[in-house]
Design goal:
Elements: H1 7-18, H2 23-30, H3 34-38
Length: about 40
């Protein structure tokens, strides 16, 4: 199993999505899986 993502990354992803960006674009921008974003 991989290491958990840092809290800073989680906060940045949430802010990015709250600005109106899609989960898919956030996943591409931060190079994480869509599942990671959906599970937050």
């Amino acid at each position: 199993m991989g290491k958990p993502h840092p809290m800073e990354l989680r906060e940045r992803v949430v802010a990015f999505v709250e600005e109106g960006n899609t989960h898919r674009s956030a996943a591409a921008h931060f190079r994480v899986s869509i599942k990671f974003i959906n599970d937050m």
